[in-house]
Amino acid sequence: MNSSEKINEEYLNKIISAAYGDAGIIDKIKLYLDSKKYPEVKKILEEYRKTAHEVHSLKHEEYKEAIPVYHPQSSNLLLLYLKLFFRRPFLSTALTLLLIAGLISGYLLMNEKPQPKKYSAEEIRTAEQQAKESFVIVASILNKAENRLKNDVLDKKVNQPIQKNLIIINNYLKGE
Amino acid sequence: MKKFAGLFLTVVLAAVVSVYPQEKIDYSGQPGYVDFGNLAKFMTGDKVTEINLDANMLKMLSHLGDEDSVGFKSVVGGLKLIRVNSFGINDSNEKEIMQKITSIDQHLSGKNWQRIIKVKDKGEYTNVYILPSSDYEDFLGLVVTSIDNKGKHGNGREATFVNIVGKINMSQLGKLGEKFNIPSLGKTNKEKKNDRKK
After folding, report:
1. Alpha-carbon distance B128 to A94, whole Å?
2. Residue B126 domain-assigned?
3. Which of A98, A119, A129, A142 to mutate to test the interface with B (most CBs of B within 10 A)?
4. pLDDT tens, residue by residue, B123-161
5. Which residues of A touch B49 (CB under 8 A)?
């Protein structure tokens, strides 16, 4: 910009872009140098910066009513859905999360140390009773076998024949 | 956007956790384990007892309880599985149950199991097997197959299949027997050696 030149529309747009932070780095440097050189440019730039600052400081609630609400037609619902879920930030986030989930599940499966099951107090109480009942079942079977061995086998098949024979021998020795 | 991302991550992690395996123990590698096959088809009627205590539960039981149950905890602590199936016998299933008992007997006889009791008398059958460790110091498994004319419910014939897997502390089991009326199975080599030293 020359000192003789007036600020044209293109140059004004550059000032506005710089004020709102949208201008490229070269334009920003150029405008910075111009504002040092030409007070008029500096003044306009500062005014727009001030306005931009006010605009940026506005909260969502303060201007949302001013924005026209878009009511989609039913035929456009699919398009809206696709736009909503396949926007680049969402898609990339989804893919990143999927990748993380895949890595976590892969890690868990590779180091397959299963989670110990948690039991309630009632389950533990029942299990204790069942364990005791198991021992009692085994005990009753073993007791029965033990009694059979003592009474039927040892007594009837061993003791009684021995006793019978001893009585015969005894009687024989007595001379009966 | 952040809301969506958080929700998505929660859903994905929930899915991952749900497919992550809960502890389901495979006992087939345990030396004291014996597969009785499908007993579910016999588990019908009123006279049915089914006990299935896995290693997790037995470990839990060994850590809980009061001082009175020290012996119980000690016995249970070494065990990996207690499985009991007891059910009534009728004419329709008796033959099949007998075949199963014979099949288990043949299976265990061909291995390192020792049959310590065999009773066959007046329609009653009892087989008790133990699996000693390689050094004969401990027992690693106990199997009981039994057909009782009276049954523990006292009304009609009953079949019982028991498999206890894990290190069976016979000394403690004997002490526990006094409490729960369990007879001692005799002393192990280790206990006999200790007695001799005394």
Report:
1. 61
2. yes
3. A142
4. 888 998 999 888 877 889 999 999 987 765 556 788 999
5. 133, 137
Strand order in the sheet with B79-88: B48-53, B79-88, B158-168, B139-148, B124-132, B114-121
Residue B3 within a domain: no
**Degrees (nearest 5) of the Cα angle A53, A58, A61?**
170
Q: And the tokens for A130? A: 């069942």
Residue among B78, B178, B82 at smallest CA distance from B133: B78
A117 in contact with chain B, both atoms CB, cutoff 8 A: yes
CB contact under 8 A, A137 and B86: yes
The range of the structural domain enclosing residue B193 comes to 40-197
**What range defines the domain where residue A158 resides?**
121-176
**Nearest Cβ partner of A93 from B5, B72, B75?**
B5
- Tens of pLDDT, residues A36-91: 888 888 888 889 988 888 888 877 666 656 666 666 555 566 676 666 666 656 66
pTM as predicted: 0.56
**Is position B13 within any domain?**
no
Number of folded domains that form chain B: 1
Residue where a domain terminates, one of A43, A66, A89: A66
Is residue B17 a part of any domain in this protein? Answer: no
| A104 contacts in chain B (CB < 8 Å) | 13, 16
**Where among A22, A49, A66 does a domain terminate?**
A66
What is the SS3 assignment for chain A?
CCCCCCCCHHHHHHHHHHHCCCCCHHHHHHHHHHHHHCHHHHHHHHHHHHHHHHHHCCCHHHHHHHCCCCCCCHHHHHHHHHHHHCCHHHHHHHHHHHHHHHHHHHHHHHCCCCECCCCCHHHHHHHHHHHHHHHHHHHHHHHHHHHHHHHHHHHHHHHHHHHHHHHHHHHHHHCC
In a domain, A103, yes or no: no
Number of domains within chain A: 2
Q: Locate tokens 């009785």: which residue?
A: B36
